[in-house]
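User: I need a structural model of Dolichol phosphate-mannose biosynthesis regulatory protein from Limosa lapponica baueri for a docking pre-check later this week. Nothing fancy, just the predicted structure tokens so I can convert them on my end. Input:
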Amino acid sequence: MAFLMKKKKFKFQTSFTLEELTAVPFVNGVLFCKIRLLDGGDFASLSTREEVQENCVRWKKKFTFVCKMSANPATGLLDPCVCRVSVRKELKGGKTYSKLGFADLNLAEFAGSGSTVRCCLLEGYDTKNTRQDNSILKVTIGMSLLSGDPCFKTVSGVPCCSLAGVPEEPDQNLSSPEEVFHSGHSRNSSYASQQSKISATDQVVGFGLVAFSLVLFVYYTLWIIVLVRLSPAITIPVTQVLA
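Assistant: Understood. Predicted structure tokens for Dolichol phosphate-mannose biosynthesis regulatory protein:
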């Protein structure tokens, strides 16, 4: 009867910071973004209009809004909640604009994880007739639980627990060379630490094997010495053996 159970409801206070767009395919122009919730609310807002400088646009614009989410009552897994960032370029002195691309961010991935930096490639609106550029959008997202069960699971399947009404503290370990990319790969020092632990374990095991071998060598040496000393007392005459 699990299908008759109502879905769990959540409300999250969301802090969405539009950081920058890098690898812009032109050297001048004015860009701005529209941030809009496709699920979980009706939030929509525009960023400031900034000029392209050295193939990069920096906004550093922070948006705050409430996002509603639901979760499976049996598993506690949060349903997808998509926020779309649409990048646009001014035309005709700002009277009109063209859409350069967009990035869809599933806010359910960020619930209960504190302040998280995410970089993702822009997707094109017209991928069939237009060559897609490699512009990278950088955002920072932080979410804190306002209402709902404090125990839930994110889309990645990692159990999370948040304190309602208490803002998440930013993760101090996230910096520009260790940002988590949209493709799902993260670059950090955990791999190196794991390798160092493995090498230390191998050294301990190797030392134990050497010590065990040394003990066996001493034991068998003493045993041979004892046998050699007792050999005259237990020697059997050769004539008896031949008989």
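Before docking, keep this in mind: Residues 157-198 have pLDDT under 50 and may be disordered.
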